[in-house]
């Protein structure tokens, strides 16, 4: 079961390794190799048919293997047709397909698949095999999803460039949502597959507990089935797209080729993010205050833990809203003020109401924290509006690059990181309580929750906050001119010599080091169920504080330099750093670096 997917990767490579080789023996060898998965499924179906009246799960297993055999047959037929199409590609496209897409993709997918395989093997070595079915199912499901996504990419790349321009996604089209219906469907399916992968990864490598009265294997199997269906449907859509546009290209001949080539080469400019993204952003930012007030009204502390875990997601989407439409006027800024008020002010107001019934010393301490936190978030929001106004003055092409590279791509990376961290907490909660054990009502009171996942909740939430701070810092840096970015950059030569142009760069080196150590400490508690540890809370506070201070100092100097340099900095007339004068030679490291190495 564990070795199936790594061998499937080599199986796919063998399919397309020689697309133009028509040797009769090689073709028969390929046909034999192509039919092996279907023959294997037929063998499984026959094996379960023999014990159909004896085993309870024989009928469901037969249905499962019949469905999988049909899927394998469809994929094999598509691959055989695709092989003949790959053979007709131009030499340059064929070389790119074989090297970058086929072999390079196999290496990229094979690394994570082997890691997952050995992660599941770790469970088998530490525990009994009977306890590792959940881990092996999760590992196999993730590997299948990765292989299907890789196969979808191969199908998309196995066509000429003129057709590829019609079937591929672009960041600009994703931001503006100017996509055809099937592209929207395929994008949604990829998001579902990503969520399933993150959920399943949190269960790979972990053994089951015999004392639990529920089966994690059922949950993992269902999530794996959902992900497999979504990735398979995405593959089918990609095959159908290729067949449709290939047939259309053959009918219209060179006219479609010239048209699509022109469309592929034309620059695409996007000046704002589509409205559905803003609707989702506003809904996500409303989740945190809703959970805070539910905690106040029901006196249920678990709502506070959920609010603490959801706050970084709200902050991330708040950043998305701030930079979504740089050219929008005062009406959009008023919307941003409303969204910030809902996310931050109403949440802090709910916390203030909640602490009124406590002891006096506790009330004073909490009120101080609320005031400090609200002041910091308000200051960050105001600075974000300033950065947004700077972005509005940039050329249209620079704004488009900022929205696609920084907001969409970097924001997606941060969001996927947060989802991974959140699912690690979900994994801990599932292992401790199982489905239905955490009833979110005052009557049940979450009596079954034993608090063993508090460390995982605090760790994941703190790391998510750090990711949000990194995104804010990246957005502030990319919004400034190139001269300001170069002037504020810290190079490896600076680190080697410990010579910095500004004092805040020295401070930030210490801050980033402390934040990194704290984050590594927090990573070790992800998904771990154990009693509450005060050091996790302290490490989270250190990581968030020093990362926030480092970002605040950098943003302050970004904005000050941008205002001071103005048009002179944009022109690049000698304001950048002279890197040749700052570079140090090998062996010229400072005594401080040597002393640190000795320590």
Describe it for me?
The protein is mostly helical and 599 residues long. Helix content is 78%, strand content 0%. It has 23 helices and no strands. The longest helix has 37 residues. The chain is globular. The two termini are 48 Å apart.
Outline the fold blueprint:
Blueprint: H1 4-16, H2 24-50, H3 58-87, H4 91-126, H5 133-157, H6 161-167, H7 171-176, H8 181-201, H9 216-252, H10 254-265, H11 275-298, H12 301-324, H13 330-354, H14 360-392, H15 396-432, H16 454-479, H17 482-488, H18 492-497, H19 503-523, H20 534-565, H21 567-571, H22 579-582, H23 591-598
Helix pairs in contact: 1-4, 1-5, 2-3, 4-5, 5-8, 5-9, 6-9, 6-10, 8-9, 8-15, 9-10, 11-12, 11-13, 12-13, 12-15, 12-16, 13-14, 14-16, 15-16, 16-20, 19-20
Distance between the termini: 48 Å
DSSP strand tally: 0
Apparent shape: globular
Overall mean pLDDT: 76
Strand content: under 5%
| Low-pLDDT runs | 254-267, 434-448, 572-588
Number of helices: 23
Structural class computed from helices and strand pairing: mainly alpha
Q: Into which percent range does the helicity of residues fall?
A: over 70%
Sheet with the most strands? Answer: none
- Rg from C-alpha positions? 28 Å
SSE series: HHHHHHHHHHHHHHHHHHHHHHH
Short synopsis of the structure:
Helices cover 78% and strands 0% of the residues. The protein has 599 residues and is mainly alpha-helical.
Core attributes:
mainly alpha, single chain, 599 residues, 23 helices
